[in-house]
Amino acid sequence: MALSDPLGILASPLTIISRTDEEADIRDVTDIVRRHEVGRIIVGLPLSMDGSQGEQAEKVKAFVTVLCRHTDVPVEYRDERLSTIEAKRMVRGVRKTNGRTRYDAAAAALILQSYLDEAL
Fold first, then answer.
1. Which helix (H) or strand (E) holds 89?
2. Which segment of 16-20, 88-92, 115-119 scores lowest on mean pLDDT?
């Protein structure tokens, strides 16, 4: 997960939610939304390289459907193709990483930053 600054200019990695079960995952997300007074949730949608929605994108949309039952905060999807590859390039060499965790947080920040840049 990533958050923006209060002015909506800069995105920063926040945390990784290790998927356990849907109920715990929803609780973790809604706790962060409440604690940080989130005004909009941007969700990375894992599209196929041809832009189609595969099985993983459908799983994400199903999760968001449940999430929307637990929060009134608006949710928007954002294409996340290649975000992990870009995050790996950015993180590589900066410092040691514990693998997927740091890359996922950086990718979340890149997805949010792309959204913020378009909103400006």
1. helix 83-91
2. 88-92
